[in-house]
Amino acid sequence: MNKKKVSFLALIAMASAVALSACGSNNDSSEPSAPASSAPASSAAASESAPSSSQAAPAGETKEITLTATNWQFDQTEIKAHKGDTIKLTLKSDSGLHAVTFGDLGVEVKTGETKEFTVTDAGTFEFHCSLQCGQGHDNMTGNLIVE
Ligand SMILES: [Cu+2]
């Protein structure tokens, strides 16, 4: 009788210990895993929506660029833009008389002028001086890089 009661109590103690530890381990595993599984889901959703909204944004972006020519170079030989950007380009000249043409885009800007054009295609578009300005004329080139 005594022995049975002891083993019965031991069973209860073991069962409750298992139940407690099971409950404890459930809590341990479910508490960190619940925020962990929901956090990446929400951050993934946030990072998924971020690029799509930034892809739509460049459509309205206007880049104001002042290109300054001298004999015989432009102060910028690399202009970067994103697809859909509008380039508002002003050409100044510190020496000599120059103009700049983006041949493939059909755009020419003379000294003192400002012209706006939208770049709709990605690619590298060469620009160069379009006025015969002297011996260094052929060196006056650069690239508009649209990404
Ligand atoms: Cu020139």
The run of helices and strands is HEEEEEEEEE
Radius of gyration: 35 Å
Annotated CATH architecture of the largest domain? Sandwich
Low-confidence stretches: 22-27, 29-58
Small molecules bound: copper (II) ion
**Shape descriptor:** globular
First-last Cα distance? 87 Å
Strands side by side in the biggest sheet: 3-9-8-5-6
Largest sheet: 5 strands, mixed
The domain tally reads 2
Beta-sheet strand percentage?
25-35%
What is the CATH topology classification name of the largest domain? Immunoglobulin-like
**So what's the CATH class of the largest domain?**
Mainly Beta
CATH H level, superfamily name of the largest domain: Cupredoxins -  blue copper proteins
- Mean residue pLDDT: 77
How many DSSP-defined strands? Answer: 9
Q: Briefly note the structural class of the backbone.
A: alpha+beta
What is the helix tally?
1
